[in-house]
Amino acid sequence: VQLQASGGGLVQAGDSLRLSCAPSGSIFRLNTMGWYRQAPGKQRELVATITDGGRTNVADSVKGRFTIARDNSKNTVYLQMNSLKPDDTAVYYCYADRSTIQGRLDYWGQGTKVTVSS
């Protein structure tokens, strides 16, 4: 499974962006999907995840501004980012996992860059 992320770009503080991520190639049932980000010089951190049942986990730093959603029929996850701040500048990575008889398999997208200017 390869995850294809899109939607990043350069915006000004206060603007909005919508990220999308969908798998290509073999399609399996994906359990948790979501987004992580990594700013320059910092560790990768969770932004938001959503299970196939719709349960979400959202980082405190983006609560109230970012919304995660998914379309299970398309195995696609979205991240609506509003009121963007310069601190949101990072490479955003799509994530997904699925269960196999060998255990959980994790998948990562190639990353899409989000730059927020002040």
Quick summary:
The chain has strands spanning 2-6, 9-12, 17-24, 33-38, 45-50, 56-58, 66-71, 76-81, 90-100, 103-108, 112-117. It contains no helices and 11 strands. The chain is elongated.
In round numbers, the mean pLDDT is 94
- Using the CA coordinates, give the radius of gyration: 14 Å
CA-to-CA gap between the ends? Answer: 37 Å
Number of strands: 11
Q: How many helices does DSSP assign?
A: 0
Largest sheet: 7 strands, mixed
Helix content: under 10%
The structural class is mainly beta
In N-to-C order, the SSE pattern is: EEEEEEEEEEE
Q: Could you list the spans in which at least 5 consecutive residues all have pLDDT below 50?
A: none
Shape: elongated
Share in β-strands: over 45%
